[in-house]
Amino acid sequence: MVKVGVIGATGFTGEKLVEILLNHPKVEVAYIASRTKKPLLYSEIFPKFAQKTKIKCEPINVGKAVDSCDFLFLALPHTVSMRFVPAILSKGKKVIDLSADYRLNASLYKKFYNTTHLDSKNLKKAVYGLPELFAAKIKKTQLVANPGCYATSLILALYPLFNQNLVEVKVAVDSKSAVTGAGRKALLDFHYSNIENNFWAYKPFLHQHQPEVCRVIKGKSGSSPQLSFLPQVAGFEAGIYTTVHCSFKQRITQARLKTIYQDYYKDSFFIRISNSLPKLKDVVGTNFCDLGFAVDKSGRNGIIVSSIDNLIKGAAGQAVQNMNLMLGLGETAGFL
Question: In a designed cystine with 127, which of 137, 172, 275, 276 is the match (CB 3.0 to 4.6 A)?
Answer without folding.
Answer: 137
